[in-house]
Amino acid sequence: MRETDEAYEVQCELPGLKREDIDVEVSERDLHITGDLKEREREGILRRTTRRTGRFDYRALLPADVKAEDVHANLSDGILTVTIPKAQSAKPRHIEIEG
Predict the structure, then answer these.
(1) pTM higher than 0.85 for the full model?
(2) How far apart (Å, rounded) are the C-alpha atoms in residues 21 and 3?
(3) Around 5, how many Cα atoms within 13 Å sit in the side-chain half-sphere?
(4) What does the DSSP assignment read for 67-97?
(5) Which residues pair with 55 in a beta bridge?
(6) For residue range 72-91, what is the model confidence (pLDDT) as tens digits?
(7) Distance of CA 87 to the CA centre of its chain
(8) How many whole angstroms separate alpha carbon 52 and alpha carbon 2?
(9) How many degrees, rounded to 5, is the angle at CA 7 between CA 55 and CA 68?
(10) Taking a C-beta distance cutoff of 8 angstroms, is the pair 98, 51 a contact?
(11) How far is the C-alpha of 79 from the C-alpha of 96, rounded, in Å?
(12) Could you say which DSSP state residue 15 is in?
C-alpha cells in the first residue's frame, strides 16, 4: 500500500485473471479484494505445474477515513491498481501562523 496526500494506492499482481474473476470492496476503513484463480483446460497429462489456483483473499485496514464512493480499480497487464481517495478530514492541511 502506498500513500500520497490525496489517496491510498494498492497494487496486486494477478496475472491471467479477468476482471469478472475479481471482486473489490471498500468500507469506511477496510479494503477487501477476493477472486478465483481457475485452472486452465488442457489436453494431455499434466506432469507438473507452478501456477497457483483457487480462491484468494486480501484484506487491508486503511489508516484513515476514505471516500468509498470515489474508489477506482484498474486491471492492466496483470496488475490490479485500487486508488482510494482520502476523506477531506484525513488530508494534511497547512496552518498559517498568526501574530
Answers:
(1) no
(2) 27
(3) 3
(4) -GGG-EEEEETTEEEEEEEBPGGGS----PP
(5) 36
(6) 999 999 999 999 998 877 56
(7) 18
(8) 26
(9) 60
(10) no
(11) 41
(12) T
State how far the Cα of 93 lies from the Cα of 46, in Å rounded to an integer: 58
CA–CA distances in Å: residue 41 to residues 19, 35, 47: 19, 19, 14
Q: Which amino acid is at 37?
A: L
C-alpha cell at 64: 484513515
Residue 2 contacts residue 40 (beta carbons within 8 Å):
no
Amino acid at site 85: P
Backbone angles phi, psi at 89, to 5 degrees: -70, -20
Q: Which amino acid would we find at residue 16? A: G
Dump pLDDT digits (tens) for 44-56.
776 766 667 789 9
